[in-house]
Specification:
The protein has a single domain, classed as MetI-like (MetI-like fold), CATH 1.10.3720. It is about 70% helix and about 0% strand. The chain has 15 helices and no strands. The protein is globular and about 75 Å long.
Length: about 280
Amino acid sequence: MSGMVEKRGISYWLTHVGLTSGVLVLFFPLWLAFVASTVTNQEVIHPPMPLWPGDQFLENYSRALIEGDSGQTSASVARMLFNTTVVATGIAVGKIVISFTSAFAIVFFRFPARNIFFWLIFLTLMLPVEVRILPTYEVVASFGLLNTYSGLIFPLIASATATFLFRQFFMTVPDEIVEAARIDGAKPMRFFIDILIPISRTNIAALFIIMFIYGWNQFLWPLLMTTDPSMNTVIMGVEQMIGGQDDVTPWPVVMAASIMAMLPPIIVVISMQKLFIRGLTDREK
């Protein structure tokens, strides 16, 4: 028994040492980015780069947040963060609303060829944005939606994946609940609002985080849709700050912008962490 306890103890500590080592390896590049955002440009481009923060934190972050890099883009990081937050939130909410209502119609309504419609939606997974980007761009441009939030959001809000996940979840809802609501005289929309939405909140939270990060990391579509620097997203802005040569790139400002670009998704994940985990693992209805 003592040997078993000792062996279990060694395994326990080895597991934690491995996890800690993995976290440190993953965290080290982020630490270097933070350090680079607090020193001068000369300290970054002339090795060895410091491994501890410098005294330029306020100067670099205020320049990125308020002024941006006037040599590459006229938009400040604050403006780009606002644009990206609007776009990511719009995409996440739009995907959830459309997918939720589509799955509701497919599962709880009886109409001809409903399964065919579902599989047609599901087949769109084989047509990512990159494949249909030219016709989509022509449609959006013809409606005059270039350099607008609508043009950045609407073409990306359809989601076959979310529709499939909600459909699979709705199919696990017991028939007794549906019959009880019908006997109580609940109309379809009342059943939708009072029953389906509350029992789906963890799934909605999990999908919101995934879709928010998906929208936050968009690069190609905003790059095509925006010609006005004031409509740039933060992912575009970080790329535009990087010049052709090291001596003209303000690396501390770029690193400061990169750190600030990571904060909103991290805040969203941390604030909704419990619902996110329950939405992925909980199977109790």
